[in-house]
Amino acid sequence: MKKMLLILIAVLFLSGCQAKETVQVETIESSSVSGKDPADLKYSEPDAPVQQEEKEPEAPSGNLVPSGNIPVLMYHYIRSVDKDEDFLGYNLSTDPELFKQEMEWLKNNGYSAITPSMAIKGDVPEKSVILTFDDGYSDFYDAAFPILKSNGFRASEAIIIDKIDHSGFMMGTQLKEISDYGIELMSHSMTHPNLKESTDERLRAEIKDSRDFLEYHYDIKVPFFVYPSGDYNEKIQGYLKENGYSGAFTTEPGIADFKGNLFDLKRIRIDNRNSLEDFKNKILNSKN
Ligand SMILES: [Zn+2]
Fold it and tell me: For the residues of 34-74, what is the DSSP string, one character each?
């Protein structure tokens, strides 16, 4: 009888251990907009990066900015475009050589490039900028990322989920690599729609599913959203708050106030239309 009892205890103990080791696999609702399930895209590990001179992203110095004002620069393409052939494309782009000069000027003048998450945590050195790049274009990886790395700069990239792995946009493996380096991924919706004209159901999918996708695939937190085409209203801001976002960037020009409403953070547009001198003035005139 005693032996039976011992066996029973042993069996109960072992099954208890097994139950503890059973890992609950979290599933995420698939997007009702795109039909793309987060698990559909299976990314292999990125190839080992080509060895090049690079620095670790800087650790913040811990000098907090009392005002909460931080210049947030807004870039789109980093590529060479012929002004006469593609005027619109030229205005949305920054030539890689100009971009390099801008980053070197920031570096040589003691600026730190921090992420939006560092800003809300208060990890803000006295001379800080936030570099944002919209839409997840492939030239970020090809042209901007090497320059950011060589200056030890962090940045943040706004990703349109349905464009991942599409021609002209970054691959999933590249997003993993930039995220691992310290580029903060932000949601830029599933499909880049006009959110003001979206149905409630679609709004929820564009805002929630896009964030869930990035968090699921890259094992990161995604606290920030970037409004597609800069369109937003109070209802959209409400959806963002309801779904746990910490803040969102607009395309409205000005200095972001991280101690004000975090859901209408302003940005400073940078592209080929500003010379290096204009760039310097935009930064110097936005003292934080
Ligand atoms: Zn966009």
Answer: T---TTT--PPPPPPPPP----PPPPP-----SS-EE-EEE
